[in-house]
Structures are given as structure tokens and as C-alpha cells.
Specification:
By secondary structure, the protein is mainly beta. It contains 1 helix and 4 strands, in the order H-E-E-E-E. It starts with a helix and ends with a strand.
């Protein structure tokens, strides 16, 4: 929420359109404000990466997500565990 309020996504576009659409600061020249302190997937209720859910993107190691997020265009159950699991934070109708 802070990233949105701080305007970090202003003028940014979704990119990628294979199994997810993704948005964030990648390629913008703007540095993210930092990584999330923990991957909530391992500590809370697991919500699967099904079609229409939104999740925090991260790379090769757990607990490294920041301002990158994506919307699942299909069920992507493999993302529930890849690199510690991608944390779903919202479900679309």
C-alpha cells in the first residue's frame, strides 16, 4: 500500500503475458524501497495461485519480494512452492 501511496507505480505498465501479467519497477530505473521482511506464504494461510489472484513476485531465493506483483492468468499451482512460494495477497472476482 505504501508503494502505491508514494506513487511508485505511476506511469508504470503491465508487462509479460504468458501465464501471468506483471507490474512493478523492473526496467524503470527506480530502485524498490526494499524487500519484504518475510514471505507470508510460509507463515499464514496459503491461498493458491489460481486464475485471477494477485501475488508478490520474487526471484531465486525466498523472502526477496518487493514492488513486483503479478496477476495469474491461469491456475499456476507450481508458484505455490517455487522458491518458497509466491505470496497471494488478493483475489479478483
Amino acid at each position: 500500500v505504501k508503494a502505491v501511496k508514494d506513487g511508485l507505480y505511476n506511469g508504470k505498465q503491465f508487462y509479460r503475458s504468458d501465464f501471468v501479467i506483471q507490474c512493478g519497477l523492473h526496467g524503470s530505473g527506480v530502485s524498490p524501497p526494499g524487500n519484504l521482511p518475510k514471505n507470508e506464504t510460509r507463515f499464514g494461510t496459503l491461498i493458491s495461485n489460481t486464475r485471477g489472484t494477485c501475488a508478490i513476485a520474487h526471484w531465486d531465493v525466498p523472502d526477496c519480494g518487493n514492488t513486483e506483483f503479478f496477476v495469474n492468468l491461469q491456475t499456476n499451482a507450481h508458484l505455490d512452492e517455487a522458491y518458497g512460494g509466491d505470496c497471494v495477497f488478493a483475489e479478483g472476482a
